[in-house]
Amino acid sequence: MHVLITAGPTREPLDPLRFLTNRSSGKMGYALAHAFIRAGHSVTLISGPTELDVPDEVDFIPVETAAEMFAAVGHTLGRMDIAVFAAAVADYTPASVEPQKIKKAGATWTLELVRTPDGLAAARGEFGFAGTLVGFAAETEALEVNARDKLIAKRCDLIIANDVSKPGFGFDSDRNEVLLVYPDYNEALPPASKHALAHRLVAAILELHQKRQS
Ligand code: CTP
Q: What is the CATH number of the domain that holds 191?
C-alpha cells in the first residue's frame, strides 16, 4: 500500500527573522510513518520542521509553510491508497511577508492574517482522492462533536481526535489518548505511548481500508 502522512507544524513567516507556528512536535505523524513501514507499506512523509530523525525508508518531502504543505499534498495524493493528515497546519498566515526585519513602532501592533489552503479539505474535491482518508482533530472541548463536524466537512473515513487540554497528552508529549470517530460509531482507545498507539492506529486504518475495498 502507498501511504501519505503529513506531520509536524508549519511556519508562517512574518519577516526574515520571525514566523508564526504551534506546539506540534511531529511525534505522532513520525510514529505512524515508522509503524506503516514496519507493517510493510511504502510511506511518503510530508513534514513541517521538527527535531525528529527521518526514518530511512520514507520518501521525505520537507516543507515549511501551509501553502507548501498544500502544494506537496496536491502533487503526491494521486499515487496514494491511504492518506493520514497528522500535521498541525496553521489555519492563518500573515497577509504579507516583509522582505526586511519589521522594526517596533507604536505600543500595539495589529497583524492581518489570511486563511491558508487546507489539504485535507481539498482531498476529496479538488484533488479527487478516492482512497482511505484519515484526519486528526486536536480539541480542548466538545471532542466528539467537533471531531464529527470535521469528519463530515472534510469527507474523511476516520478522524483521530485528541483532547489537548489533558495534561501529559497530545501536543509535544510522548503519550496520547485518542477517540476514533467513524461515520457510524466512535471507539475510545486507552492512553498509550505514541509509539504503541501508532501500531494500534495503523491496524485500525488498514482494517478500515480493507472494509472500504470490499
Ligand atoms: N489540515 C490540513 N490543512 C490545513 C488545516 C488542517 O491538512 N490548512 C488538516 C490537519 O492535518 C488535520 C485536520 O485538517 O488532519 C484538522 O482540521 P482543522 O479544521 O484545521 O482543525 P483545527 O485547526 O483544530 O480547526 P478549528 O480551528 O476549526 O478547530
A: 3.40.50.10300
Mean pLDDT (the chain) is 95
**Whether the model pTM is above 0.90:** yes
Residue 22 a catalytic site member: yes
Count CA atoms within 13 Å of residue 182 on its CB side.
14
88 lies in some domain: yes
Q: Ligand 1 pocket test: which of 70, 93, 150, 165 has the largest number of ligand atoms within 8 Å of its C-beta?
A: 150
The pLDDT of residue 71 is above 80: yes
Cα 26 to Cα 7, 15, 18, 67, 140: the distances in Å are 5, 24, 20, 18, 19
Residue 103 lies in a domain: no
Total tally of structural domains belonging to the chain: 1
Name the residue of 61, 77, 85, 126 to mutate for ligand 1: max ligand atoms within 8 A of Cβ.
85
Name the pLDDT band for 214 (thresholds 50, 70, 90): confident
- Cα–Cα distances in Å, from 190 out to 58, 82, 175, 200, 208? 28, 24, 11, 10, 19
Among residues 32, 27, 34, which one has the least CA distance to residue 8? 27
Residue range 96-106: mean pLDDT, rounded = 96
- Tell me whether residue 99 is in a domain: no
Give, to the nearest 10 degrees, the angle between helix 194-213 and helix 27-38. Answer: 60
3-class DSSP assignment, residue 62: strand
